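Fold this complex.
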Amino acid sequence: MKIIVLVKHVPDAQFDRHLNGEGYTTDRDESILSELDEYALEAALQLAEARGGAKAGNQVIALSMGPSGAVNAVKKSLQMGATEGVHLTDSALAGSDAAATSLALAAAIRHIGTGAPVDLVLTGMASTDGETSLVPAQLAERLGLPQITFASSLTVDGGRLTARRDADTYSETVEASLPAVVSVTDQINEPRYPNFKGIIAAKRKSITTLSLADIGVDPAHVGHTGSWTTVTAAEERPPRTAGTIITDEGDAGIKLVDFLAAQKLL
Amino acid sequence: MANVLVFIDNPGDALKKSSLELLTLGRSLGETAVALNGDMHQDVSATLAEYGVSAVFRPSAQDLDDYLVSAKAAYLAAAAGAAGAGTVLLDNSPEGKEIAARLGIRLNAGVITDVVAVDADGTAHKSVLAGSYTTAARTTTAVSVLTVKANNVTPEPASVASAPETSTVEVPADGMATAARITAREQKVASGRPDLADARIVVAGGRGVDGDFGPVEQLADALGAAVGASRAATDAGWISHDAQVGQTGKTVSPQLYISAGISGAIQQKAGMQTAKVIVAVNKDAESPIFEIADFGIIGDLFDVLPQATEEIKKRKG
Ligand SMILES: Cc1cc2nc3c(=O)[nH]c(=O)nc-3n(C[C@H](O)[C@H](O)[C@H](O)COP(=O)(O)OP(=O)(O)OC[C@H]3O[C@@H](n4cnc5c(N)ncnc54)[C@H](O)[C@@H]3O)c2cc1C
Ligand SMILES: Nc1ncnc2c1ncn2[C@@H]1O[C@H](COP(=O)(O)O)[C@@H](O)[C@H]1O
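Structure:
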């Protein structure tokens, strides 16, 4: 199988995150591979391994679009076991919204599929910065492919893909034919950690850098100018502050109820 | 001509509150038409008239529910064309967002998700980065697609009722051709408690409950609250995944959130820090949850929760 996994380089949520500059874009100084994309990568590695791995010709290609630092998301993917990496980077991409991102990624996926077609595109359920979940469905629409989003399990049998999706009031089984775009949730697996062997092996794997010219995308269709949405104002919400903290001396349950009564919450 | 289109998917016997909210918001922006999927019960059509809806569109195909999303997006794109809509409003459920995503590409329309308010000029307001920023955003396209979070608009019927005409919209075949198919669906058993996503009060338990959600559920029932959980608790299988609050679970903004045996990791806070009042019960005084709690109790949840439950029952008589 030839699988592309979309991996985004996002600000680490363990630190304070900020919006700044033109169009209030996210500050990417302290960035990591989006944790939610690790589940997509793990799902891809399991599908490839079940088919004999890289030796049997299975490819897991990690694709990231972003500034120079985004190559680190590709590198981490290679350490975890992706067979090759692609970094789409171009100054004209800065400020891309979901529509522009999906336009550029769709072109990159077509480019990677010239020669040997791609069987499956796997993504995370949402990026941990943009959090829109729009990109997977928009990619599917642009590529004219079936989409299965929020898969909590995934099996591929020949050219058919079966997945489970969980909604609040029901669970459903869905089927699609390959090629397809699938986003996976954090319920699907337990992503592996890169081990020493993986870290060493990654150094020998190739990373292809692509520009917009390489994939035939007009710079005017992406970035701040090509995006279909624009942020006009952003305001940091004052952080919540701690209130009253008490230590239980045997009557904290009563004090809790007193507090609720005082707040008119009973 | 109508300039707002509201998508209402399978209303059943009566319109849900979130649909009424979309109709009310739509009316504040312009003349509002509805694209409906599924059966239209008499009560539903009466409510649409009360809410001043100018026109109702229904799909030519009855089997849109068998396909995943793209068939509905294709239908909605055709309906938006028929309505001459400049704004399309959908609910903010995962499915609503996906339909919006594909619709946006079909209509060359910018999509804004997680919207909490829309100004008359179309500026949409939402919070981002796990609630740490509030932002204003606009689309730069002729048509705007917005998915609107529930509980941000008060439903209000129109001052003058309408008599909407119903017409059928041809569903483009390409929406079905490439769609994933739904082959089986299992209903889950309802808990009988309020819906977590829009409950007024949520009582949530984490790893600290150590397998026993009893004290959390009893306090929830005494307060008429929904039950929530951290991912540690759902991953352990102590409670269903539907109860998970946080980045990869539900985002809740109740009047009151009682957190018990939850440390307050960033991914948990992402789903609950916009609650009006936060109460935390945790054994560890260093727990980050205390940084955002309005009322924190350093103590054992197995002592504090049952005592509070008893006291509430006593006071409520
Ligand atoms: C990609 C990703 C997505 C995630 N998404 C989510 C999400 O949506 N929601 C979420 O919640 N988490 C999520 N997490 C997990 C998150 O990082 C934390 O691991 C999780 O929230 C911890 O749950 P907890 O607080 O219950 O457990 P712990 O961190 O183990 O905390 C348990 C707490 O209980 C206290 N305690 C123990 N016994 C008692 C007692 N008897 N009485 C009182 N207090 C007691 C302890 O002092 C401790 O503070 C995600 C993680 C990742 C990587
Ligand atoms: N710039 C990007 N580079 C690579 N993958 C991306 C990028 N943006 C989004 N994705 C993928 O799309 C998924 C959903 O992102 P979003 O629509 O932004 O919530 C992510 O989990 C990624 O797998």
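The pocket of adenosine monophosphate (ligand 2) is lined by residues A 6-8, 34, 36-37, 40, 64-66, 98, 101, 123-124, 126-127, 130-136 (CB under 6 Å).
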